[in-house]
Design goal:
It is a single chain. The protein has about 400 residues and is an alpha/beta fold. About 40% of the residues lie in helices and about 15% in strands. It is built from 15 helices and 14 strands. It has a seven-stranded mixed β-sheet, with helices on both faces. Strands 11-14-13 form a three-stranded antiparallel β-sheet. A two-stranded parallel sheet has the order 1-12. It is globular. The termini are far apart.
């Protein structure tokens, strides 16, 4: 039973719970054996059984080949770059730079732009904590000045962003704009990115898009979008765990140099030839790379890509609709977007003590998480409709106990 053969058995039509249960669920026997309703797929994706075999392949090469293990290890990193290029819509895998975190990708971009004066940056208040924190550290050191775009409160109680507010901040003198394709805390898909790309080009700014909550659940086409940079990773929707992240760089910036570099960036690195003026193969590569994360990411990408992001997106939207309907029937107030396609892969219930609510849910067998007041319920292809209804009923019991 291989990932490829099981995906092929699904056929080419819409995904169904029956088909997934028969052909895909057996690939996840270890996590499916857990006695819980797992709805934190938007946070940490569930790994395939085969992931342990892939990691063992990397360590077996080490035991058997010692320093010659670098040949299969480097081949695996190139495989990762090619798979991510397909995932993110990048024509040339060489423009995918492996990173250990999305934040590392941001630092590489900032360190390519740093000069004799602070970089003027525009970013939203909805960026993930790592991005937010890095910007504030750079600001504290005098490397950047940041103009923050604030969210607008919605009638339902969520703080959402208006792309017009971002556009208004992009003026001549701004050098870098940072936005999330899908906001991590609300799931909002930021509209108008195409207009933002055009505005940045007009003003001489570069655009970095954080696609961590987009890649794997909604179609992403980096080349067609025309943004300058994109960051993402395998931790969530492609089931690759921590450490297998990436930075995508537009072709027009191939010659841009970053200070985040190392000996793997050298021309002919294994020749150990030194010149007083650095000669680059690719300045975006760094020192000796990690290896195991790219093996642990292999099986998730091999599952996601052939199933197809569009099919996964349609199925997830149906699951979210089922979940929201179950919340309504159970009497649990949940966020009801006017257009569900304008949001990512999870549904939201607002709670004043969201973390406490999550702890109580987990004690009753429902594993999810929260950001601020938003309790995030993220279904995926391993969740049954029955589980979603049961999770809503358990949440209802907690709201009635308050």
């Amino acid at each position: 039973m291989t990932v490829e053969s099981q995906v092929a058995k699904l056929g080419a039509g819409p995904l169904t719970e029956a088909g997934l249960r028969e052909h895909i669920w057996p690939l996840f026997s270890r996590v499916m054996a857990r006695d819980e309703i797992y709805l934190a797929n938007h946070s940490l994706g569930r790994p395939l059984d085969r992931m342990t075999e892939d990691v063992r392949e990397a360590t077996d090469a080490w035991y058997a080949q010692m320093d010659d293990a670098w040949e299969p290890w480097l081949a695996e990193i190139e495989r990762f770059r090619s798979s991510v290029a397909r995932l993110a819509g990048v024509s040339d895998p060489k423009r995918i730079v492996p990173k250990t975190s999305a934040g590392q990708g941001l630092r590489a971009v900032l360190n390519a732009l740093i000069g004799s004066r602070p970089i003027r940056v525009v970013a939203t208040r909805g960026e993930f904590d790592s991005i937010d924190f890095i910007l504030k550290v750079y600001r504290q050191r005098g490397f950047v000045e940041v103009d923050w775009v604030e969210p607008r409160p919605s009638p339902e109680g969520l703080e959402l962003f208006d792309s017009r507010d971002v556009l208004a901040e992009v003026v001549p003198g701004v050098e870098l704009v940072i936005v999330s394709h899908v906001c991590f805390n609300t799931g909002q898909i930021l509209g108008g990115i195409e207009e933002l790309v055009a505005r940045c080009r007009e003003c001489g700014a570069k655009l970095l898009v954080d696609a961590y909550h987009a890649a794997g659940v909604i179609p992403v086409e980096f080349d067609a979008l025309g943004a300058d940079f994109m960051i993402g990773g395998s931790y969530k929707y492609t089931r690759g765990g921590p450490g297998a992240c990436w930075l995508a760089i537009h072709e027009r910036h191939r010659e841009l140099r970053t200070l985040d570099t190392g000996w793997f960036a050298k021309k002919e690195p294994f020749a150990y030839h030194r010149t007083e003026v650095p000669e680059f193969l690719d300045s975006w590569l760094e020192s000796t790379p990690p290896v195991l994360p790219f093996y642990q990411a292999r099986s998730g990408l091999e599952l996601t890509l052939p199933i197809g992001i569009a099919r996964l997106r349609t199925y997830n939207l149906d699951q979210q609709a089922t979940l929201r309907e179950a919340f309504r029937r159970a009497g649990v107030p949940c966020f009801e977007p006017n257009d569900p396609t304008g949001f990512g892969a999870f549904a939201i219930v607002l709670q004043e003590d969201a973390r406490g609510f999550c702890r109580a849910l987990k004690a009753r067998g429902v594993n999810t998480d929260s950001r601020g007041r938003a309790v995030r319920f993220g279904p995926d292809v391993l969740n049954s409709g029955e589980e979603l209804v049961r999770a809503a009923e358990i949440a209802a019991g907690l709201t009635k106990d308050e």
